[in-house]
Amino acid sequence: MIGQLKFIGLGLHSELGISIHGLEEARKADLVLAEFYTSLMPGLSLKRLKKLLDKPVKVLSRSDVEEKAELTVLKEAKVKNVAFLVPGDPMAATTHLDLRLRAEKAGIETRIIHGASVTSAVSSIIGLQNYKFGRTVTIPIVEAGAVPESPYDSIKENLFRGLHTLVLLDIKAEDRTYMTICQALEQLLVLEEKRRENIITNKTLAVGVARIGGEDMKVKAGRVESLRLFDFGGPPHSVAIPGKLHFMEAEALQILAGAERSDLEQNV
């Protein structure tokens, strides 16, 4: 078998986030595949991406990757040099790890060309130290039924340890449904009303980030009650819940994210 499957991260916001290394590897590939269902890249243009690579790009759906990978990806990668373009960093999504493992089991060599990820970019943008983040949580889109309590439990554990929490917001890209910062905070407040453990209240400090990596990015730190009313614009959105703040982190939230000194008192 002479094939190879290369996972190439596109980075944040648009096709311009791809690294020079990733660009070169994609240009050398016999076949370029891509998926855009795991994350939204609001500035991405498929037309510009194809022009940048100087070759066609076949976009795969969720079912193409998760249910039909043997035909859509692995069959090709057994005999060709295949580039698989994904938003952010390639292995941030479980679906990509699953595909990589299936490829390796089938005797296909795999490689990773990394891209910028929201998990590192958020901390850089708002000035919180990356090593002080605890477990990352995801707030799911709930159409009916009970709201899952695991995000609340993880935020609680992180705060108990003085750690920050990155809160990723669910998307359903194929349905063009994207959770907003306001919706996520309201879901956490619903859990607070049920649990009454004083973890997430209207007075809790939070930071909202929208369209990270884009020129129209918006960043705002403040209490939950104020962020619920703030207009962050279009998706994608994410939230950080700060834990114990170093004095430099507190200063960064004021200068970089517009926090008021009074908003930070309970975290310093």
What does this structure look like?
The strands form three sheets. This protein has a five-stranded parallel beta sheet with strand order 3-2-4-1-5, sandwiched between helices. Strands 6-7-12-10-11 form a five-stranded mixed beta sheet. The chain has a two-stranded antiparallel ribbon with strand order 8-9. The protein has helices spanning 20-28, 46-53, 62-66, 69-77, 94-105, 118-126, 150-160, 181-195, 224-227, 247-257, 261-264, and strands at residues 4-9, 31-35, 58-60, 81-86, 109-113, 137-139, 165-169, 171-172, 177-178, 205-210, 218-223, 237-241. It is an alpha/beta fold and 268 residues long. The mean pLDDT is 94. The protein folds into two domains: 4-113, Tetrapyrrole methylase, N-terminal domain (Cobalt-precorrin-4 Transmethylase, domain 1); 118-267, Tetrapyrrole methylase, C-terminal domain (Methyltransferase, Cobalt-precorrin-4 Transmethylase, Domain 2, 2-Layer Sandwich), CATH 3.30.950. The chain is elongated.
Task: Outline the secondary-structure elements.
Elements lengths: L3 E6 L10 H9 L2 E5 L10 H8 L4 E3 L1 H5 L2 H9 L3 E6 L7 H12 L3 E5 L4 H9 L10 E3 L10 H11 L4 E5 L1 E2 L4 E2 L2 H15 L9 E6 L7 E6 H4 L9 E5 L5 H11 L3 H4 L4
Parallel strand pairs: 1-4, 1-5, 2-3, 2-4, 6-7
Antiparallel strand pairs: 7-12, 8-9, 10-11, 10-12
